[in-house]
Write a structure and sequence with these properties.
Number of helices of chain A: 0
Strand content of chain B: over 45%
Radius of gyration of chain A: 13 Å
Structural class of chain B: mainly beta
Largest interface: A-B, 27 and 25 residues
Helix content of chain A: under 10%
Oligomer: heterodimer
Largest sheet of chain A: 7 strands, mixed
Amino acid sequence: EIVMTQSPATLSVSPGERATLSCRASQSVSNNLAWYQQKPGQAPRLLIYGASTRATGIPARFSGSGSGTEFTLTITSLQSEDFAVYYCQQYNNWPPLYTFGQGTKLEIK
Amino acid sequence: QLQLQESGPGLVRPSETLSLTCIVSGGSISSAVYYWAWIRQPPGQGLEWIGSISYSGFTYHNPSLKSRLTISVDTSKNQFSLKLSSVTAADTAVYYCARPMEFGEFPFDFWGQGALVSVSS
């Protein structure tokens, strides 16, 4: 099983500033890496897939980068609605054995 | 617009079987080859993929749950179901059904709202 490790566990950033979240895979997942946003009481929402492609309707302030084992989600000009928990997920296996990171909570500083 | 809705009991006794159904609307479950998925999230914790099923009934399971898990599909009702046997408190979670973007190695772009299932006597 591929283990996904996210850092930091909690990130405190002021509105209008930039947030950088990290995700590391225990082995290469190529670019088969997605990022999700989850707000309290809601299902996760797909933000990024293919490590760097924004999903439909996702604002341009969200960007993803990386390949292999190291990935980054960057959110520029943080808006109030961006404060949430973010998960990375690898989907590099077929047959599937999807795994998620433990999440990074992005909170208002 | 595709919508997924989980339904089932919110409380299950220890050692019994947890049963949930995901009702798909706004599209046919058999219109294309997707592997419809179950994912769970214990309170305050991260996400765990449980398993996936195609409209033809082919399944993939998380090895950690495989011995207790049954996933089935009913195309006539446009729904798929989850049964998890011999539950313990560790199975308490919000259970989501979800659909990946496409067949193959893709993430999930449609999710149900989630159903909280508590395991308690």
